[in-house]
Amino acid sequence: MQVSVTFRNMESKDVWREYVQEKISKMKKYLDSPLEASVVLTTEKHRQIAEINLVANRLTVNAREETEDMFSTIDGVMDKLERQLLKYKEKIKRHKVNSSLPESSLRMNVYAAESFEEGGEPKLIKSQKLQARPMSVEQAALQMDLLNNDFYIFTNISSKNLNVIYRMKDGHYGLIEPQGG
After folding, report:
1. Which in 10, 51, 94, 122 has the greatest CB count within 10 A?
2. Is 50 part of any domain?
3. H or E element: which one contains 66?
4. For position 101, what pLDDT does the model report?
5. 134 and 157 in contact (C-beta within 8 Å)?
6. What is the longest distance spanned by two Cα atoms in the chain?
């Protein structure tokens, strides 16, 4: 976990720095991946402002709070971050597979390029059984991101067909669907 604390228009105080680091360390329970946090504490006239940018894997969460007391400002901004992370976790839970729909089983075979040389029989290098779970395209994209894969095989709940979603070089997603008929 990497936390950087910046002070603007005020003295750098270790008490606030340690307080922020302690609070942010509690956010690790919501995220599996390494955490980076950028914290800016500012004083403007009679206001104390705290801004936090939290980055973990592909998730970025921002929050800002201002009050008259720096400790309550830090507590307020941490509450906002926690609510956002809880909302994110709930969104992931909602995108979990609906177990009432039947699951398709798929076998994927990978062949070596040299096995296709003249006269050669293809050799099976790797075989893997996958469960093509029923879900929407959006859920499949989210699942692919969570698993950090370049493609994901699933059963499309709208068409009941096997689909493949993949990440293109430009960062967008592609979808392979069987043609009807």
Report:
1. 51
2. yes
3. strand 59-67
4. 46
5. yes
6. 82
Cβ-Cβ contacts under 8 Å for 94 (sequence gap 6 or more): none
φ and ψ of 179, to 5 deg: -85, 135
- Helix and strand counts by DSSP (H, E) for the chain: 3, 10
Neighbouring residues of 85: CB distance < 8 A, sequence distance ≥ 6: 27, 30, 31, 61
**What's residue 36's pLDDT?**
87
Structure tokens at 38: 């950028």
Tokens representing 85 are 């992370």
- In the chain, % helix, strand, coil (3-state, to 5) comes to 30, 40, 30
Same domain, residue pair 161 and 136: yes
Any idea what DSSP says for residue 178? P
**pLDDT under 50 in the chain at which residues?**
97-104, 115
Note whether 107 and 127 are within 8 A (CB): yes
Tally of residues, the chain: 181
Contact indicator for 140, 158 with CB cutoff of 8 Å: no
What range does the domain containing 42 cover? 2-94
